[in-house]
Design a protein that fits this description.
globular; 0% strand
Amino acid sequence: MFLEKGVGEKKRWFYPISSFLLSLGLSTAGIWTIFYPHIQEYYNLEMVANIVLASLFIGLGQMLFGPMIAGFIVDKYGPKIPYVFSMISIVSGYLIISRMLSFNNWNSAMPLWYIGSFFLGLGQGLYSGTYSTTVAKWFPDKPGTATGLGVAGLTAASIIYSPVIAFMIRVNGFNKKIFLLFGLIAVIMLSIAIIFWKNPTHNITLDLLKLKNDKLINKISQPEREFTLLEASKSAYFWILFTGFLCASFAQMFFVQNASMLIIEGLEASMGREQALAVVVPSFLIISGFAGLLGGFGWGFIIDRLGGPWRTLPLLYFSTAVLILLFYFNYNSIVLIMIFGFLLYLGLQGEPTVHYASISYVFGRKHLGKIMTTLQAFSVGLGISLGPFLGAYIKDVTGGYFWAIMLAVALRIIATIASLIGLRISKKRITIAKNLSEI
């Protein structure tokens, strides 16, 4: 049967490596902020929030509907079907957005901007929900490291796309060719994935690891048991992760999806809006892409070395809260923007890796598709959907990004506290289990 055909257990590293390449080709989340100032100028708009509102529709598809649909399909049928749906949705989104630029009036273009954004987000959500679940299933021994390659590809896309987009706009202006190019890349990349990807067989994977190295079995993440979605939702860990994911994702979107406008705010007085947009913003996105490449893989390695999420999440959340403050209070300096931006994106873009791996560590992988996509949809999904618009709205109301940044830092402190509670509960349960075993 076609759904069961694909690369087998003996070449399982094909999946994280190919997920890096697929993510590199498909991701536009890291560079989407580059389009906001151009759309503002194209339609001669004063306000930012109604442009950034597209992120709500992207987020609804990318983190709410897309991953949940993918998760339920992947557990039963494997990755091929959701990849087909992903291709159709992504291409539809880009075609609709390219059509938007045929209108010179914002009132006519606005519905297409929102509708196209939703289909784009839905397709990317179908992809991310599929690759993250499938790769984690293939690597019970290294869920963080393996999943991190895919996340690294998502964040590293800006290294390639930022200079390409800047060049295309400089030569040909802001037009539909950019979005048509994205659509063509999606067709090529997802066609390859449809042919070669499949789910592993649980027992075969474990037997293969044991045959390769008996000691390797001891490194496999061992949850209390293989949780069902209902059992997971009744666990304290579920709601601790939910709180951390929700707060962290809102904070991240306040910053990431408003990054271009934030940089322009900091540099406009000293160098002018046009130069900041044409030179500094693309350079920043390239640097942040390199940081994401390192962070996506690096934090996956860290969570595997630290043995799970409860020592990793507090470190990640608190360090990025401090770096957001350092970035904002030094955003009048190009040099410090690049330095603190690089360090900040090491953490922010490594966050999805840690989130994906955390769920595998805590709840197992038998029902991973359902648990991962449901938990992320109603936590990270809300942050990605509402965060960018809320950040831009605060900016429009207050006249600057100060209060949006302060709220982002506060949310990350709350996420840090939640994850420390998880660490405390984990230590307590380990102590109880150890005492019982000695009786």
